[in-house]
């Protein structure tokens, strides 16, 4: 056979290909020739063919058929053959293939070779792709080379030892005696760097090693100080800094050794201050060293002044033109803001400026850090900046930004009016992106701000006139108009100039929401309920009756059911309507995740109220409890006990259990406890039932009409199938 072409000629030929198909054809032709040469056991050109195969592998073409040829080259006595063979093994083999175990004996022999370069090849290969089995078999040979006087081999042996420790951590103690002497090496370009890498690996993987090597902190500090104070060294100088790679490695090791240890931290405080103040920041090399210095200062038990210096370095990073440096600074500040809040606050204006950055990652980090900096002193200024950011940011940011503003406003609001204005601003700006719990949370805020009812309903009414596309805002506005519509038409607002609006104009707006294509089913339910509530606040009762009756045949089941219930109130239970549609009392937000948590219901608790005037009469002293048992036939999933009301000495609890022997009947037990010394009077529980439910005839309960529809909405239960009968008993304990 003719001699195969050289690697250089193959590269030149492949580069002449004009299309991918043409290149593929050239590769396939050459691979066929290489296979033929392998079959004929051509030892003369095996090295050349494997080298070409490795180049094709780098281009992404399959080259697995050359694995055994690599092993043959490793077994060769020629250095050129071994070099290509070991390179091929590192590229084509890994520990997942059993073939690699065949080279264990060859590596062992080469580790004991008389030529240092052959030993170096075997160390590189073992450190690159050695499996745990190979590492166990060859660890002793690596440990011997770690003690040799040859700096070339010691460097490679140290790096190979790192791989052995990663694969077989229990062999770590084998390298301990040799490791102690590595730091005394003066050739820091070759030995010190790999020695620090090996020490770092051992300290990260073993607490015992970490404690053992803490005594080396003074020696590491001395090495680092020599690097800083040494003059120009052309061998190790990078952009005017002496061996920055070794400096970074030493700083990383010091961070591990000093974490959680007072003595080690104290020993390295001074050198860290020197590095932080003497390192040049005009080049990226200096910034890398300063960043490692900052991380070390933040992780160890450093002095407060040193931590402030580190945060100031990060603040300077924020002014750097390099986006990567700015991102790293923001991420680091976000990690330290909880422990060094005041120091980070000094850079607040620079952090806020990063919200205007064009880079998406920097804007997100700046937003997260801005929320972490919000406190009671800067809430107004920070919210102004964050609301401006919410107006202009990409849609991907709006949901997180809106949630952050809600949480910050709830925690640090200087006044209720400011809180309400801020939340309304968010709903107006990014209402479509807010979380589901924003509506009930704002409703609760408004309900509890009694003095702001007139102002809030006026603001929300004007917002509805401007825009009805933001559904959460529309839902809150509908709820408020239903609750406080009488304040709106009476013009009682004192916080701003009252507007003149009639009852018909208010009803026109709510009816418009019912027929608007922009309204969701939930929004329509809010609007219908609001109209129903206004029947006790406005004089236009006939108009409201007509609207409610129309939706009794709606194709929306939720809307239809509400309308049917409301029609029943107008007809059969009209005498109860004023009491049932009273204003909501002040609500206390619960921390539970049960059915009564208002934050989990998206505002669907608007149909029900819990008021001490509407509960069963109890006149027992503190030691006694009133209990109502409601036996209801419906499919009920397991619901944990819940506390529905706990205020002013009155505690009301609901428990749920299935009835035996009828598992389809569930018993709801209401425990009402009076913990005060005085008796409670006028304590009535009222509700109403749908027409599908009926009472057994009982003269004991002429005034207790129970509407499970309202009761279950209060409990947060929505998936209920009510049968035709309802059984009620009352026991006084």
TrEMBL record:
Xref: SMART domains: Alpha_adaptinC2
Gene Ontology terms describing biological process: intracellular protein transport; vesicle-mediated transport
Cleavable signal peptide: none
Transmembrane segments: 704-723
Domain GAE: start-end pairs: 637-733
Keywords: Cytoplasmic vesicle, Golgi apparatus, Membrane, Protein transport, Transmembrane, Transmembrane helix, Transport
Entry's localization field: Cytoplasmic vesicle membrane; Endomembrane system; Golgi apparatus
Family (UniProt): Belongs to the adaptor complexes large subunit family.
Protein name in the entry: AP-1 complex subunit gamma
Species: Cyprinus carpio
């Amino acid at each position: 056979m003719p001699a195969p072409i050289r690697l250089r000629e193959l590269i030149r030929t492949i580069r002449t290909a004009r299309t991918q198909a043409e290149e593929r054809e050239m590769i396939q032709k050459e691979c066929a020739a290489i296979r033929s040469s392998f079959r004929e056991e051509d030892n003369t050109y095996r090295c050349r063919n494997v080298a070409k195969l490795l180049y094709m592998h780098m281009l992404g073409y399959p080259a697995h058929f050359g694995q055994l040829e690599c092993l043959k080259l490793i077994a060769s006595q020629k250095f050129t053959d071994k070099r290509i063979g070991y390179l091929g093994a590192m590229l084509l083999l890994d520990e997942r293939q059993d073939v690699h175990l065949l080279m264990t004996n060859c590596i062992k022999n080469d580790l004991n070779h008389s030529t240092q370069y052959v030993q170096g090849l075997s160390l590189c290969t073992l450190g690159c792709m050695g499996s745990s089995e190979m590492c166990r078999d060859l660890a002793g040979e690596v440990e011997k080379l770690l003690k040799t006087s040859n700096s070339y081999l010691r460097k490679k042996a140290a790096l190979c030892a790192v791989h052995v420790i990663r694969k077989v951590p229990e062999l770590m103690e084998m390298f301990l005696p040799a490791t102690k002497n590595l730091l005394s090496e003066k050739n820091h370009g070759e030995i010190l760097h790999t020695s620090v890498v090996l020490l770092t690996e051992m300290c990260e993987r073993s607490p015992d090693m970490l404690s053992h090597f803490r005594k080396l902190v003074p020696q590491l500090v001395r090495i680092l100080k020599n690097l800083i104070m040494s003059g120009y060294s052309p061998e190790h100088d990078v952009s005017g800094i002496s061996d920055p790679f070794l400096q970074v490695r030493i700083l990383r090791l010091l961070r591990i050794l000093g974490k959680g240890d007072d003595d080690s931290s104290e020993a390295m405080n001074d050198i860290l201050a020197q590095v932080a103040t003497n390192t040049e920041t005009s080049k990226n090399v200096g910034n890398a060293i300063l960043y490692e210095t900052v991380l070390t200062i933040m992780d160890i038990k450093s002095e407060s002044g040193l931590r402030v210096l580190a945060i100031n370095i990060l603040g300077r990073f924020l002014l750097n033109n390099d986006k990567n440096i700015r991102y790293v600074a923001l991420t680091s500040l976000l990690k330290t803001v909880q422990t060094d809040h005041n120091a980070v606050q000094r850079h607040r204006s620079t952090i806020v400026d990063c919200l205007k950055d064009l880079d998406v990652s920097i804007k997100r980090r700046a937003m997260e850090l801005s929320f972490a900096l919000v406190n009671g002193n800067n809430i107004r200024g920070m919210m102004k900046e964050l609301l401006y950011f919410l107006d202009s940011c990409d849609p991907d940011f709006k949901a997180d930004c809106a949630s952050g503003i809600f949480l910050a406003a709830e925690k640090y609001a200087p006044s209720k009016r400011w809180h309400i204005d801020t939340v309304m601003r968010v709903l107006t700006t990014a209402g479509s992106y807010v979380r589901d719990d924003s509506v009930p949370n704002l409703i609760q805020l408004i309900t509890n701000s009694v003095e702001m009812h007139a102002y809030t309903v006026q603001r929300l009414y004007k917002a509805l006139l401007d825009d009805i596309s933001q559904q959460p805002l529309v839902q809150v506005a509908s709820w408020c108009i239903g609750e406080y519509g009488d304040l709106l038409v009476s013009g009682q607002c004192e916080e701003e100039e009252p507007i003149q609006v009639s009852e018909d104009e208010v009803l026109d707006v709510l009816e418009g929401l019912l027929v608007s294509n922009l309204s969701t089913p939930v929004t329509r339910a809010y609007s219908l309920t609001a109209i129903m509530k206004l029947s006790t606040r406005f004089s236009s009762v006939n108009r409201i009756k007509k609207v409610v009756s129309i939706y009794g045949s709606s194709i929306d089941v939720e809307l239809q059911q509400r309308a049917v219930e409301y029609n029943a109130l107008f007809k059969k239970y009209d005498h109860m309507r004023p009491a049932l549609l009273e204003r909501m009392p002040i609500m206390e937000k619960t921390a539970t995740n049960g059915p009564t948590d208002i934050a989990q219901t998206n505002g669907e608790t608007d149909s029900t109220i819990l008021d001490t005037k509407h509960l069963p009469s109890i006149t027992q002293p503190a030691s006694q409890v009133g209990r109502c048992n409601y036996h209801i036939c419906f499919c009920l999933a397991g619901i944990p006990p819940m506390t529905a009301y706990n205020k002013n000495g009155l505690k009301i609890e609901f428990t749920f259990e299935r009835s035996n022997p009828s598992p389809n009947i569930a018993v709801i037990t209401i425990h009402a406890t009076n913990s005060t010394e005085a008796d409670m009077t006028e304590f009535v529980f009222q509700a109403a039932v749908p027409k599908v439910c009926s009472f057994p005839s009982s003269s004991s309960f002429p005034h207790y009409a129970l509407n499970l529809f309202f009761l279950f909405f209060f409990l947060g239960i929505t998936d209920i199938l009510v049968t035709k009968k309802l059984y009620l008993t009352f026991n006084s304990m």
